[in-house]
TrEMBL record:
<feature type="domain" description="FBD">
    <location>
        <begin position="342"/>
        <end position="412"/>
    </location>
</feature>
<dbReference type="Pfam" id="PF24758">
    <property type="entry name" value="LRR_At5g56370"/>
</dbReference>
<protein>
    <submittedName>
        <fullName>F-box-like domain superfamily</fullName>
    </submittedName>
</protein>
<dbReference type="InterPro" id="IPR006566">
    <property type="entry name" value="FBD"/>
</dbReference>
<dbReference type="Pfam" id="PF00646">
    <property type="entry name" value="F-box"/>
</dbReference>
<dbReference type="InterPro" id="IPR055411">
    <property type="entry name" value="LRR_FXL15/At3g58940/PEG3-like"/>
</dbReference>
<dbReference type="Pfam" id="PF08387">
    <property type="entry name" value="FBD"/>
</dbReference>
<dbReference type="InterPro" id="IPR053781">
    <property type="entry name" value="F-box_AtFBL13-like"/>
</dbReference>
<dbReference type="InterPro" id="IPR050232">
    <property type="entry name" value="FBL13/AtMIF1-like"/>
</dbReference>
<dbReference type="InterPro" id="IPR001810">
    <property type="entry name" value="F-box_dom"/>
</dbReference>
Length: 412
C-alpha cells in the first residue's frame, strides 16, 4: 500500500483542496475509495477556460448530475466562469440554488450574456459573505432581501433591471465593508444612493453611455475610495464627509469637483485625473503621496493648486498621457506661482515623472521643482523619447540648479 492511500479521508480531501477542482475530480478514477472523495471539497471552481459546445455540454451534464449530490454540508466557495454561449439560464439558476442551500459563503459568477440567472433564494442567503457578479447578468432583485452576513459585494458590468432593484440590494446589506459597482451601460437613468455606516472600501465606475442622474454617498467609515466617471455630462453629486479616508483615486470627466474634493481632504494617498479646478478653501493637511495623471493639453494650474493645498506632501508623481494626434500640443503653458508652496520648502522628498514628454512647459516645471524643493532626495525622470532625444533631456535637467544638495537625479 502506498503512503497516500494510507492517509485518512479527511487528510486526502485537504490535499485535494490545494489542487484545481478539475484535477481533484479526476482522482475519482483511481479506485473505488477515491470515487467520491472530491465530493467533500468545500471550494469548487468551474470554467476559467474557453469551451467548445461539446465541452460545455459535458460540464453541464457533470454539474447537473453531481452538484445536487455533493456531500460537503457547507460549501465555502463556488466560482463559475462561463466564456461560451451554450449554457441555459435555468441550469445556472439551479446550480446557484444548490450552493445556496449548502450555506455558501463565497459566490462568484461570470456570465458573458444578458440573462436572468439568479434565483430569489440568493438574496436571502444569510451565510453569504462574498458575492461577485460579472458580465451580462441582469440584476433583478426581489422585494424580499436580507444579506445579513455579506461583507464584500462586486457588481461588474451587470445590467440593472431598475433603479429600485439596485437600491433594494444596496440597502439590505447591513454589515457591508467592500463595495465595487461598475456601470458600463444602462437603459434608463439611474439614481445611485450608497449609504453604509460600515463600508471601508468603495469603487465606482460610471461608463461613457451610463446615464446617472445623481449619486449620493454617505460612508463615514470609508478608508479607500475610487471613482472613475467617464461620463462628460455633469450630474449632481452629494458626498458626505469621509473623516477616516486614507486613499482616494479620482478620475472624472465632468467639471463639478466641489462636493467630491471637500469630502476627501483627509487622505494620505491621492491619485487625481481631472482637468477641472476644484476651487479654493480645501487643505490636504494629511496628504503625503500625490499622483497626477496629465495630458498634453493639461492645465498645469491644477498642479499649482494641489501643491499649495498640500503643505505636508512627501512624494509627487506625474504620469503623462498623449492625446490623439497631439492636436493640443502646448495649449496650456506653465504659469509659475508667485510664491513657493510650503511643501516644496519643507517636506517634498521624492519626485517622479513617468513618460516625460520634454515640451518647454514640462522642462520649466521640472526645473522649477528641482530649483525650489529644498528637501528633495530623488528626482526620477522616465522620458518619452518620441518627441525629443534623451541626451537633450538629460543635458537640460542636469544643468539646472537644485535647492537640495543631496538630491539624486535619475533618468530612464
Amino acid at each position: 500500500m502506498d503512503r497516500i492511500s494510507g492517509l485518512p479521508d479527511e487528510i486526502l480531501v485537504k490535499i485535494m483542496s490545494l489542487a484545481p477542482t478539475k484535477a481533484a475530480v479526476s482522482t475519482s478514477i483511481l479506485s473505488k475509495r477515491w470515487e467520491f472523495l472530491w465530493m467533500w471539497l468545500t471550494k469548487l471552481e468551474f470554467g476559467d477556460e474557453l469551451y467548445s459546445e461539446s465541452e460545455f455540454k459535458s460540464l453541464q451534464c457533470f454539474l447537473d448530475r453531481n452538484l445536487p449530490l455533493h456531500r460537503a454540508p457547507v460549501i465555502e466557495s463556488f466560482r463559475l466562469e462561463l466564456s461560451g454561449l451554450y449554457f441555459k439560464p435555468e441550469d445556472i439558476r439551479m446550480w446557484v440554488v444548490v450552493v445556496v442551500s449548502r450555506y455558501i459563503r463565497e459566490l462568484e459568477i461570470y456570465c458573458p450574456e444578458k440573462q436572468h440567472i439568479l434565483p430569489s433564494s440568493l438574496y436571502t442567503c444569510k451565510s453569504l459573505v462574498i458575492l461577485k457578479l460579472d458580465g451580462g447578468i441582469i440584476l433583478d432583485v426581489p422585494p424580499m432581501v436580507c444579506l445579513s452576513s455579506l461583507r464584500t459585494l462586486e457588481l461588474k458590468g451587470v445590467r440593472v433591471f431598475s433603479d429600485a432593484s439596485l437600491q433594494r440590494l444596496l440597502s439590505n446589506c447591513p454589515v457591508l465593508e467592500d463595495l465595487v459597482v461598475n456601470l458600463y451601460h444602462h437603459d434608463n437613468t439611474l439614481k445611485l444612493t450608497i449609504i453604509f455606516p460600515s463600508l471601508h472600501r468603495l469603487s465606482l465606475y460610471i461608463g461613457y453611455t451610463c446615464d446617472v442622474d445623481e449619486f449620493v454617498i454617505d460612508t463615514p467609515s470609508l478608508e479607500y475610495f475610487k471613482l472613475e466617471d467617464r461620463n462628460y455630462d455633469s450630474h449632481p453629486c452629494l458626498i458626505e464627509n469621509m473623516p477616516k479616508l486614507t486613499v482616494a483615486y479620482v478620475d472624472v470627466r465632468s467639471t463639478d469637483l466641489q462636493s467630491l474634493i471637500g469630502s476627501i481632504t483627509s487622505v494620505k494617498y491621492l491619485t487625481i485625473s481631472s482637468k477641472a479646478m476644484f476651487g479654493d478653501g480645501f487643505i490636504f493637511n494629511h496628504l503625503e503621496h500625490l499622483t497626477l495623471r496629465v495630458w498634453d493639453d493639461y492645465p498645469w494650474n491644477v498642479l499649482v493648486q494641489v501643491l499649495k493645498d498640500s503643505p505636508n506632501l512627501r512624494e509627487l508623481i506625474c504620469l503623462s498621457e498623449m492625446n490623439d494626434h497631439h492636436q493640443n500640443f502646448g495649449l496650456f503653458l506653465w504659469d509659475q506661482p508667485s510664491t513657493v508652496p510650503e511643501c516644496m520648502l519643507s517636506s517634498l522628498q521624492k519626485f517622479t515623472w513617468t513618460e516625460y514628454l520634454g515640451r518647454p512647459e514640462d522642462r520649466d516645471i521640472a526645473v522649477y521643482i528641482l530649483k525650489n524643493a529644498c528637501r528633495l532626495r530623488t528626482a526620477t525622470i522616465d522620458s518619452d523619447t518620441r518627441l525629443f532625444t534623451k541626451l537633450e533631456m538629460i543635458t537640460e535637467l542636469t544643468r539646472s540648479s537644485r535647492a537640495s544638495t543631496t538630491c539624486e537625479l535619475i533618468f530612464y
